[in-house]
Amino acid sequence: MVKRLALSVALVVSSPLYAQTVSVPAQDQFFDHIAAYCGQAFEGRVTEANFTGVETFTENRLVMHVRHCSADRLEIPFHVGDNHSRTWILTKTGSGIQLKHDHRTKEGLPDNATMYGGHTINAGWPHAQSFPADDFSKQDFLRRRIPQSVGNTWHMYIYPGEFFAYRLTREGRELRVDFDLTKPVALPPTPWGYEGTE
C-alpha cells in the first residue's frame, strides 16, 4: 500500500498536468515579460529615495542587463557605475518566484553580503511582483548587525514597451530605480564572477 501510494505521488508530481496546476498565470506572465528583453540592457535612474547614503545610485550610471534566460531562471546584472558586483536572480520554484541578490567581489568570489532576497507569497500581477525577505536573509541581516533590514520587501514592476522598476521598501525607507525600456543601450561588461557563463 505504501509503495503504491509513493508511486502514485511520484507519477502526479512528474506529470506535465501537475506542473500546469502549480503554475500561477500572473507570475508566468511577469516572468515572460522580463524574458522578452533577454540580451538587452537599459539605463535607469533613481525615482524614489527617502534616506541618506543613496549617493552610490544617484551619482553613477545605472544599467540593468537581462543577460541570461531559461525556462525557470533569469539573471539580471545591475551595474552601478564601474561596480559590476550585483546580479538579480529570479527563479521559478514551483510555489512562486524567488528573488536573490548575488553580490561578488572583483575576484568573482561571493561577497560578505550575498544571496539575500525573498519569495513571493501570493500570485501578484503580470506587471508586478513582491518579495518579502526570506528566513535566510533575516538571519544574514542579523549576522551583519542590520536588524532593521529584516522588514525588507523587494518589488519589481514591468510594463513592456515602457519601463522596468526595482524597488525596496521597509518601514521608513524606500528606494526605487526605473529603467527605460524604450531605449536599449550598449551592453555593459560581464558582471564579476560570471566570466565564462555566456
From TrEMBL:
Keywords: Signal. It comes from the Bacteria. Residues 1-19 form the signal peptide. This is Secreted protein.
